Amino acid sequence: MTTGNEILSVHGLARHFTAHVSVVERLFGTKPAVSRAVDGVDLVLRKGETLGLVGESGCGKSTLARTIVGLYQPSAGEIRYDGKALPAKRTRAQQRAIQMVFQDPYSSLNPRMTVEQMLSELLRFHNLVPRNRVHERTRELMHLVGLPERALGQRPRQFSGGQRQRVGIARALALEPSVLLADEPVSALDVSVQATIINLLAELKETLNLSMIFVSHNMAVVRQVGDRTAVMYSGRIVETGNTDTLFDDPVHPYTRLLIGSVPRLVTVEGPARASEGASEDRAAVRAEVARAVARDGTQACRFADRCPSVVAGCAVEPALLADPGDPNRWAACVHVAHRSEGAIR
Question: For the whole prediction, is pTM greater than 0.85?
Answer without folding.
Answer: yes
